[in-house]
Design a protein that fits this description.
Mean pLDDT is 82; it is low at 727-752 and 819-825. 39% of the residues are buried. Strand 20, helix 19 and strand 21 form a beta-alpha-beta unit. This protein is an alpha/beta fold and 825 residues long. The chain has a nine-stranded mixed β-sheet, with helices on both faces. Strands 3-4-2-5-6-1-9 form a seven-stranded parallel β-sheet. A six-stranded parallel β-sheet has the order 10-17-16-13-15-14, sandwiched between helices. It is elongated, with a radius of gyration of 33 Å. The protein has 31 helices and 28 strands. It folds into four domains: 3-237, Tandem AAA-ATPase domain (Rossmann fold), CATH 3.40.50; 249-416, P-loop containing nucleotide triphosphate hydrolases (Rossmann fold); 465-666 and 756-816, Vaccinia Virus protein VP39 (Rossmann fold, 3-Layer(aba) Sandwich), CATH 3.40.50; 671-746, no CATH class. The chain starts with a helix and ends in a 9-residue tail after the last helix. This is Helicase ATP-binding domain-containing protein. One of its GO terms (molecular function) is N-methyltransferase activity. Residues 26-202 form the Helicase ATP-binding domain. Keywords: Methyltransferase, Transferase.
Length: 825
Amino acid sequence: MNYQNFLEAKIRIAPKTGFDIHPEDLHPILKPHQRDIVQWSIKGGTRAIFANFGLGKTIMQLETQRLIQSYKGGNTLFVCPLGVKQEFEKDRRKLGMPKLKYITHTDQLEEGHYFYITNYERIRKGDIDASLFNAVTFDEASCLRNLETDTTNAILDTFGNVPYRFVHTATPSPNRYLELINYAEYLGIMDRGQALTRFFQRDSTTAGNLTLHKNREKEFWFWMSSWAVFITKPSDLGYDDTGYELPPLVIHRHMVTFEREVKVDKKTKQASFIPDSSKSLPDAAKEKKLSIPARVAMMKVLIDKDPDSHYILWHHREEEREAIQKTLGSHCKSVYGSQNIDLKEEYLTGFSEGDYKYLSTKPEIAGSGCNFQYHCHKAIFVGIDYRFNDFIQAVHRILRFMQEHQVELHLIFTDAELEILNTLEEKWHDHLHLQSEMTAVIQQYGLNSDLYQYQLKREMFTGRKEMRGENWIQVNNDSVDEYASKADCSIGLIVTSIPFGNHYEYSENYNCFGHNETNEQFFKQMDFLVPHLYRTLKPGRIAAIHVKDRIRYSYMNGTGFTSIDPFSDDTTQCFRKHGFHLLSRITIDTDVVQENNSTYRLSWSEACKDMTKMGAGLPEYVLIFRKPPTGSENAYADEPVQHSKEQYTLARWQLDAHAHWKTSGERLIDAEYLKKLDLSDVLKAWRAIDTTERYDYHKHIEICEKLDQVKMLPRTFMAVPPQALSTEIWDDISRVNTLNSTQARRNLVKHICPLQLDIIERCIERYSNPGDVVADPFNGIGSTVYQAVKMGRYGDGCELKTEYWQDSIKHVRSADLKQAALTLF
């Protein structure tokens, strides 16, 4: 595999494991959009269809399974929620398919019969042997939204090996993308851990709170569209929408109140007449129970005002069902969990056909798959909660295509549940955004993943740029391509901080070394670079590589506790594989308290509970690799690095020869990072400088000018005022410790700090001669080149990210002009 092939392999488009069918084999009853989706699904082999309510998911599932059985043989299985079996039976007759045999156990399979249907309950109990089926489709697979349920575990364990498997649902939840990733895991598209690492930023404060990486959004939606089709109406695929217009929707909100005892907070002693039920689960449960009479009374008022209409009454608690049934009597049929399955089916079918006027049930029982739009267009939610998916599924039992009337929803809630209502409506907004993102891809490119791949190939880096000075060159390019063109044995020293595997993505290009799914993939890309580092380095000379071991959080390693990935060992193995020899491992201290504040893995409280789960802080390392000299008689480099004892003293040798190097921590700071600091950080740093060092007026001006360059120099007060050494002068009044600056800090994203300047200085002094070329293949904002120029060497830097490259030019020019570097003072 050449390097270009390797980069293109990073473009993750779902594989096609199915087969092509002859279009004439499709049943003529299918609508055009249904024909396209069925063919696309079968060719993909494992696919998700997120089609809006009323677009024909049932008939598409039936036709997909019919054709797979016709072409490949074997048994096929339909898995659906309770109350949906009759919908499959109606559409089966339209297709002229053999009868779907309902089974509760695979012992009931019959020789010569190939089409079977069951419920999720039977999957959970382990009554269905997946190995007996060649194709399976999950209808409204809500159980896959959570990878911690028994049903989900059973599906992943047993159905993951079925050759042809499909998921059909109308409402993938907008709840932090986890559901979409779980579908990808089940369908064999991508491992859940890989998807989390590849596309999402982790929120260490809230488990499961996922935010898409900004520079990965486009790739994520293209990747999703390669295995999941989102369609809200036929025109998304270029067809006529006649007959597929949703009816108008009107939402009525009814807030009820009732007598409560005065609640006194135990800590604050403050009394509250209106509790907030969103504060805790016990509060919410108590509010639900106490408010049942008031909410059911409001339901009765609404029904009495409109006695001729049919209503579906959604509730969440058994006590609510009992109160509803008592209020409405025999006019209302209830469907509930412990009820006989046949009776449930009878009531659900009867209500859908207009035999009963009122139906009382829970969204998790009848909210999926049932079609009630032909005789009902009004629903009352006798209570609300945070579960958006259950809510939206329930809404769309009547808000569907072919609904002839305006749909009316009545939401009943208490004065303590306003936050729940707001959250529910926010999730509805997020759901519509998710649909719009996916349908935009479908509308533009159709069901053609080859076009997605072509579009993503445009994310490869092109357009090499360079800038030169008398003693330096800075190149904006992929380091593999750049070093492939360098002359043999032309570099005197390599000093670099390599990307830490797939820990960060530094650039939006696929060329980025951080854009790899695993450490293994990262080092495969390093395998293209390291031989060039070896070839271009002079014989006997040094490559000093800055690394740090990586934290593996419990969600990454699946163990329930945090462990360490020995990234420095993997780096050593990689360089040794390509001819380098390890001379030493220099250790650089880090601040363990600061590390714990950002990782939460070394908590004192948790350590006291069980020390066995605790490790220690992670130092940084500089790995010293040597390319062997041409001759071995004295082990000297072909061009030795020589120092006079007067210039390189015994004292200095003792410190450098030690494997433990301390650092001042001084680094170059790019403008992008400076913008993310709030002024309180700037003030603290300035105080430390101005009260401990001799005052430097010109340095003071330079700091203020740098702040002004990035638009951080206030016009209304001094950000870095002179600090007083006398107690008679008060200088500790902070004008930047404000609410908005605190909020800005909360939104800081991780920044990749450049390598410390004094570490680079020691490496250059120890391992290079004046005039040598000192190179950095991951140059970032130019720390190595900056320091090399200051020390009389020729700096050679290569950086992929254009913004960093531009910063590096500014820094090295300041070294050229012998001006102070832009550091954090």
